[in-house]
Amino acid sequence: MANVDNEIKGRLALVTGASGGIGAACARDLWLQGASLALTCYKNRATADALAQELSVQDQSRKISVHVADMGSAADLKQLILDLEAEHGQSGPDILIANAGYGRRIPNILDISLDEFEYTVRINLQAPFMLTKLSLPHMLRHQWGRVVFVSSIAAIGGGINGCHYAASKAGLTGMMKNLANKHAHVGITFNDVAPAMIGETGLIPDEKTVEGTAGDVKNIPVGRLGVPQECANVVTMLCRTGYMTGQSILLSGGLK
Ligand SMILES: NC(=O)c1ccc[n+]([C@@H]2O[C@H](COP(=O)([O-])OP(=O)(O)OC[C@H]3O[C@@H](n4cnc5c(N)ncnc54)[C@H](OP(=O)(O)O)[C@@H]3O)[C@@H](O)[C@H]2O)c1
């Protein structure tokens, strides 16, 4: 029987967008599992610092670093991995949660400018591509890695946003499936979680934000918004389940 290694304790997890709702929940959950953390933020550094402070008082034997990085800047992403190495003493993360995302709500293609399309793809698809490329050499050296992309119900045509956002998230799922096939034999798994209508986030702070849209709580079969912790539950499960790879998990309260 081959070695089964699903241990998170002692690993280093890079969580992007940890200043946001879903990223912060993922960071908390992975910390509870015993991981060290490298957290990114962009405009809301104070929120990420407060999270790092909250977690580090619980356990000072592990390290948490906070990094400001613009997902739209290739230079920032390269620097992020160098800074991670300086802080944690390893050349890349063992676990990559590519969660930072952008999605200005523009439902109609006729209103989506080319600049908006390009920017959305750069943040939601190009940045996870680059981060994966930068993280993979370390994972390959150790023959162990977990990569989880935070996609969206938009990837399968649902949700409340336009085709720019859908294209960026569907691209993420396609990239995940390709990478999963290529790396299953070297101990590195790739999966995504595809949420919909997760409240307590910058994208969807509360029910009012989705009133009158396809994501109105009235249309969600379970009758409420999801919460970031439910997304974190799936992410942690994917990190702890090395037999699962190449999967996109829809987390949508029953929405299609
Ligand atoms: N909430 C939902 O229902 C839902 C549904 C489907 C998919 N998602 C996906 O879930 C992920 C997390 O979003 P969320 O719902 O937690 O929303 P959120 O609270 O607004 O968090 C978004 C995060 O992304 C970061 N970010 C945005 N643009 C960035 C940029 N250019 N460079 C670096 N970081 C950037 C933000 O950093 P700063 O705040 O520091 O700028 C923040 O940490 C996103 O990929 C989103 O598309 C969410």
Automatic annotation (TrEMBL):
**Keywords, comma-separated and alphabetical:** NADP
Name the CDD domains for this protein.
SDR_c
Does the keyword Signal belong to this entry? Answer: no
Q: Which residues cross the membrane?
A: none
InterPro entries, per the entry: NAD(P)-bd_dom_sf (IPR036291), Sc_DH/Rdtase_CS (IPR020904), SDR_fam (IPR002347)
Q: Which PROSITE patterns match?
A: ADH_SHORT
| Pfam families to which the protein is assigned, alphabetical | adh_short
Q: Note whether NADP occurs among the keywords.
A: yes
Q: What is this protein called?
A: Uncharacterized protein
**Assigned protein family:** Belongs to the short-chain dehydrogenases/reductases (SDR) family.
What taxonomic lineage is listed for the species of origin? Answer: Eukaryota, Fungi, Dikarya, Ascomycota, Pezizomycotina
